Amino acid sequence: MFSCTPRTAVAGTKTITAEHLAKGQVVFENSCGKCHDLPNPTDHNAQDWVGIMNSMAPKAKLNDAQHQMVYDYIVSAKN
Ligand code: HEC
Question: 39 CB under 6 A from ligand 1?
C-alpha cells in the first residue's frame, strides 16, 4: 500500500511500519480535532505539513515521537 517513495521533504528515508502509521492516526484523531475540525491530509503537500506540524504539534502537546508519527500518518494518507 506504500508504493510511492517518500518525498524529499521527509527527513531521511526510513522504514515506516503499518503499526507506526496506525499509532499516528490515533494520535491525529485524538489530538488534532480539538480546536478545529480534523484537517484533511490531502489539503496540503508533504512540505507544507512540515511547517504546519511544527506549529500544531506544540498546540496539541505532542512529544517528538508523536509529532513524527502524526506527520508520517498524514503524509502517507495522501497515497
Ligand atoms: C490548541 C488548539 C489546537 C490544536 C490542539 C491543534 N490546532 Fe491546528 N490550528 C489551531 C489554530 C488556532 C489554527 C489557526 C491559526 C493558525 O494557523 O495558527 C490552526 C490551524 C490549523 C491548520 C490550517 C493551517 C493552514 O495553514 O491552513 C491545520 C492544517 C492544522 N491546524 C492542523 C492541525 C493538526 C494536524 C493538529 C494536531 C497535531 C492540530 N492542528 C492541533 C489550533 C489548534
Answer: yes
Ligand 1 within 6 A of 27 CB?
Answer: no
Confidence of residue 63 (pLDDT cuts 50, 70, 90): very high
Instruction: Check residue 52 and report its DSSP letter.
Output: H
Residue 10 included in any domain: no
pTM, 2 dp: 0.85
How distant is the alpha carbon of residue 14 from its chain centre?
15
> Which three-class secondary structure state does DSSP give residue 3?
coil
Q: Determine, yes or no, domain membership for 42.
A: yes
Residue of the CA atom closest to atom 2 of ligand 1: 35
Residue 11 lies inside a defined structural domain of this protein:
no
